[in-house]
Amino acid sequence: MTAQLTKAELADILFERIGFSKREAKELVDAFFVEIEAALERGETVKLSGFGNFELRDKPQRPGRNPKTGEEVPIPPRRVVTFHASQKLKHAVEQLTHGEEVR
Amino acid sequence: MTRSELIERLAARFSQLPPKDVEIAVKMILQAMSETLVANGRIEIRGFGSFTLTYRPPRMGRNPKTGLPVPVPGKYVPHFKAGKELRERVDRHKEPEPAAVC
């Protein structure tokens, strides 16, 4: 397992282990994230059992400041994505000891 | 959208692939993502976001029943940071910005 996982590595896994063509593997990995993005854009929660949930939160407007000028600027209301790992994933990573190197 | 609905949507897009293979592919993607995090690796999906582990140092907590202090050991928790594109797409309050010229 590499230290950083990207779409290219995910596509390699599908190519090597399921026997998808390189092109199918790449397209499926792309579509996997496109579908999740589209659901979130529609305002839907995305629940991937065993991994975690992507939820949307509406944040109200709050006062902010321009750090350069110190001038008060309101931060407009916005909708943000939050991720909540499943119990299974949380549990698995809790077992790691601090400072442990990548296995 | 649930995991099974995601599989259905992908199976509809990839009608040339056996639905069972699409299901296995989704399982493998999620498994590889979990394994990366469990190995304290990082997941970087351009435009979508990144997943990392963040360390929560040990602290003194309290037993809510007895009120007695109990040590809470340090632990890692998964963290997701949405990418710029995803942030902009979900924010219904904001008009999409014109594509940046690099």
Layout of strands and helices, then pairs:
The complex is a heterodimer of chains A (103) and B (102).
Chain A: E1 4-5, H1 7-17, H2 22-41, E2 46-48, E3 52-59, E4 62-65, E5 72-75, E6 78-85, H3 87-94
Antiparallel strand pairs in A: 2-3, 3-6, 4-5
Chain B: H1 3-13, H2 19-38, E1 42-45, E2 49-56, E3 59-62, E4 69-72, E5 75-82, H3 84-90
Antiparallel strand pairs in B: 1-2, 2-5, 3-4
Helix pairs in contact in B: 1-2
Features:
heterodimer; A: 103 residues; three-stranded antiparallel sheet; two-stranded antiparallel sheet; B: alpha+beta; 3 helices
Q: How does this model look, in words?
A:
Chain A: This protein is one of the two subunits of integration host factor, a specific DNA-binding protein that functions in genetic recombination as well as in transcriptional and translational control. Chain A: InterPro entries: Hist_DNA-bd, Histone-like_DNA-bd_CS, IHF-like_DNA-bd_dom_sf, IHF_alpha. Chain A: Heterodimer of an alpha and a beta chain. Chain A: Keywords: DNA recombination, DNA-binding, Transcription, Transcription regulation, Translation regulation. Chain A: This is Integration host factor subunit alpha. The complex is a heterodimer of chains A (103) and B (102). Chain A has 103 residues and is of the alpha+beta class. Chain A has a three-stranded antiparallel beta sheet. A two-stranded antiparallel ribbon of chain A has the order 4-5. In chain A, strand 2 and strand 3 form a beta hairpin. Chain A starts with a strand and ends in a 9-residue tail after the last helix. Chain B has 102 residues and is of the alpha+beta class. Chain B is 37% helix and 27% strand. Chain B contains three helices and five strands. In chain B, strands 1-2-5 form a three-stranded antiparallel beta sheet. In chain B, strands 3-4 form a two-stranded antiparallel sheet. In chain B, helix 1 crosses helix 2. The two termini of chain B are 34 Å apart. At the A-B interface, strand 1, helix 1, helix 2, strand 2 and strand 3 of A face helix 1, helix 2, strand 1, strand 2 and strand 5 of B. Strand 1 of chain A pairs parallel with strand 1 of chain B, so a sheet runs across the interface.
